Amino acid sequence: MKKDTTNDMTVGSPVSLIIKFMIPMCLGNLFQQFYNIADSIVAGKFIGVNALAAIGSTGSLMFFVTGWLNGLSSGFAIIVAQMFGAKKFDRMRHYVAMSIYLMAAFSIVMTIGFSLANKPILHLMNSPEEVFGDVTAYMGIIYAGLIITGAYNALAAFLRALGDSKSPLYFLIISAVINVILDVVFIVAFGMGVEGCGYATVIAQGISAVCCLIYIVKRFPILHLERKDFEICWDSFGRLLKLGIPMGLQFSITAIGTIIVQSAVNIYGPVHMAGFSAAGKIQNIFATVFTAFGATIATYVGQNRGAGKMDRVKQGVRYTQMMVLGWSVFVMFLMFFFGKYLTYLFVDPSEQDVVNVSVTYFRTVFWAYPFLGSIFLYRNTLQGMGYGLVPMLGGVFELVARTGIVVLIAGHTSFAGVCMADPTAWIAALIPLIPYYFHVMKKYKNKSQVQAVED
């Protein structure tokens, strides 16, 4: 008999459930980041600073492209989580099937569109001539593999919607190791340059997707789909897109802001590009805890919202806020005092100019990490309850703030001024999120009180 490994988060201690779910999510996010980080480390060590600058400068663009697919799959999975929490398993499987249609369609369209627009986009980003060819080649390979990226995001999101955050982690560990091996083989042994990094990334992600699919077939009978589940229903497409598109746009809007900042950094040349890239990757490693808490709270809230247990939603958010603040304090201390040494992971200590750029970034933004962590908490809580518009609006606020700083500062003052775009954006993103969360919770509280009186 096949073992069903679903995880019902509507019962039990909220803190225990959140921590147990979050840790594998955090490790999984780290290994997913490791694809690009490994590419950067190998390129920086074996090819040079220009290769590091080339691959590093694609981080914001990759976030824009893959973030859209990640947002879509996360939005679709919230509806799956709500159906699972409500114990409506037939409807749950139907939404899984409709999500597969949509993810395949978006992946194919994006591959065609971005492949055609590759060079124009990089020109808009002010990519310097000395790295332009490498960046174009690397991103072309990434675009060609978007169907694989979409497949992994969707399958992993379905697993997490049912409370399984461990299995995607195991598959990512396997593929991350393979990615590093392929990086070394393609670059060092075959001399393929940055193109080798691109091929290694796509192949490793494909392995993750295949592992997820095999695991679902063997261990999740509740997700076994039949022909009737694939019967097209336009109303179901509409409901999925109503939540998936705002979440995809929210990711993409945030990414557009980071692209604008990257474009401003590119003006200062390859040294600043490399230092900014290294600092961003180090920051992202530690911010993975924030994103893991966010993804955890989305699943937790989605299941409990589906079960109608809003008191548990409130408890989960309160406890998660405490944990986010605790981690923020730790990261503030680490980045301020040890950011310099962490940069040595990416560049040789002799590249002192590059290291100084990273230190400048850390010293400028470290104080704002509590705001960054809170974004993931409140944005994902609202999304878990089925609200997509206001979280997207938070992304708009973030974009406007970043753009404003870049327009006022880029090219007119020091690099530290450009770094202020991130803290300003993090604070701005919370302006619509926190008030709306309390408004929603008050609405549910009043509704339950009215219901109690009527009963």
UniProtKB/TrEMBL annotation:
Where in or outside the cell it occurs: the entry states: Cell membrane
Q: What is this protein called?
A: MATE family efflux transporter
Membrane topology label: Multi-pass membrane protein
Q: Can the keyword Transmembrane helix be found in this entry's annotation?
A: yes
Q: By its UniProt entry, which InterPro entries does this protein fall under?
A: MATE_fam, MdtK-like, Membrane_Transporter-Flippase
Parts of the chain that traverse the membrane: 12-30, 61-84, 96-117, 137-162, 169-192, 198-217, 247-265, 285-303, 324-347, 359-378, 390-409, 415-438
Which gene codes for it?
A: norM
**GO: which molecular function terms?**
antiporter activity; xenobiotic transmembrane transporter activity
Q: Which Pfam families match?
A: MatE (PF01554)
GO cellular component terms, A-Z:
plasma membrane
**What is the organism of origin for this protein?**
Blautia wexlerae
